[in-house]
Amino acid sequence: MLEQLFVDKGDSCLAKSRDVRDTEPLHSLKLMYLAKDYYVRAMLEDNVNVRYKGYANYKELQKESWDFGLSILGGDGSDNLSKGVGLCGPVVSGDSGGSDCNWVDNSIVKSEYMFDDIVGYDYIKEKFKVHMVYPMTRDMPFKINSPNTILMYGPPGCGKTFFVGALSNELPGGSVYYIDASNILSKYYGETSRNLGEIFSKVKENKNNVLFIDEIDALSMTRDSNDPVSNRTLSTLLTQIDGIDKSDINLIAATNRPDLIDSALLSRFNSMLYIGPPGEKEKKFIFELEMNKQLEGHIPVLVVADIVHYMCDKEASGLRYSGRDIRRIVTNVLELAAIDYVVNDSFCIDNKMFYQMIDEIVPSISPEGLEVYNTFMV
Fold first, then answer.
1. What are the tens digits of pLDDT across the range 167-195?
2. Quick check: 207 and 248 in contact, CB under 8 A?
3. How far apart are CA 366 and CA 105, in angstroms?
4. Which of 141, 169, 348, 356 is the most exposed place for a label (fewest CB within 10 A)?
5. pLDDT tens digits, one per residue of 111-157
6. Are 149 and 251 in contact, with CB atoms under 8 Å apart?
7. Angle at 330 between CA 325 and CA 332, to 5 degrees
8. Helices 25-42 and 323-344: crossing angle, nearest 10°?
C-alpha cells in the first residue's frame, strides 16, 4: 500500500540503525534521525491507520534516540525526561494501557507550565479559563452552560495537548486524565466499552476533574461504516458523554480530522476551538521553549528573531510550519551539534545551522490541509 511507504522506510532505517549501534554509533544516530523524518511524513497521510502507526513509531523513537544520544555523551538523561510536557504532548504519570489494572490512575497529565508561561495564543487561553478555570476558582454570578465540553481541532503538531498540560496546573484540586485510542481500543469483545466506562467513572469522582480524549476521531468514525465494533464504541462514547451533564465534569477532545467525526458526537460539544499554525510571536515562544528544555537553560548566543523571520519567509508559498516542525528543527540541530562535539570535541551552535536545517525541513502543513479546517468552520 502506497500510504504505508513512509512507515516501511522509517522501520528500515531504524533496523539498520540498531544493527550498527555498537560498531558505528554516530552513523546509527544519523539513521535514527532519518527514520524520524519518515515517521513524521507518515503522520501526514490520509489513511488513519498509517497516521497512528507513524505517530506511535515516532513517539517511541524520540525517546530511544534521545537516550542513545545521551549515552554517547556519557549522560543518563533522567533529569531531562522528567521535566513535564513538550509542545507535542503531555507526560502522563506512568505507562498507560488497557492491560494494566492501574492504567486509569497512571493517565494523569503532569506539566511544568501554566497559562501565564505561554506567550501568545491569548484567545485559546481565555477560552479555557472562561469555560473551565473561572467557574472553579471564582464566585461567578452565573454559570456557563453545562456540560463543559470543548473540541479542539487543527493541524497536527500545533499544541493541542500542550494547552491541556498547562490547564492541568490551573485546576484547584482536580486532575486532567489523558486517554487516546491506544489505551482504549481493544481487540477483545466488550473491552473497549469497559475501558471507556472505567475512565469516565474515575473522572466523575471529582467535579473539578477534566477528561482529555486525544485523537477522538479514531474512536468516533462516522456510522456510515459497516464495522460493528466501531459503531458499538461510538454508541458507548455518546452514552458516557450524555452522562456528563448529570455529574458536572469537564471534557476536552482533540482531533486533526474533524471531518471524520460522526455528526451525533459533534453535536455533544458546546465549543469548537481551532488551534492553527503558530504566528510569528508563537514561533519565537516555541523555539525558545524547546531550546530551554533541551539545553537546560544553557542557551547559545542566537538572534532568535532572525531565525523566526527566516521561517516565516519559507512560508511564502503557502506551506506553514507547525510547532512540531519547529521542535524537529531544534532537535535535529542539537543532534548534529552532539555529533560534532563527539567527533571534534567542540560545541558550537549558531544561526547558520538553523538556517540550513530550515532549508532541509519542508513545512508540514499544506494549503490543502488547511482547507479542511476552513471548510469545517463554515
1. 888 888 788 888 876 667 766 677 777 88
2. yes
3. 38
4. 141
5. 888 888 888 888 888 888 888 888 778 776 766 655 578 899 999 88
6. yes
7. 90
8. 170
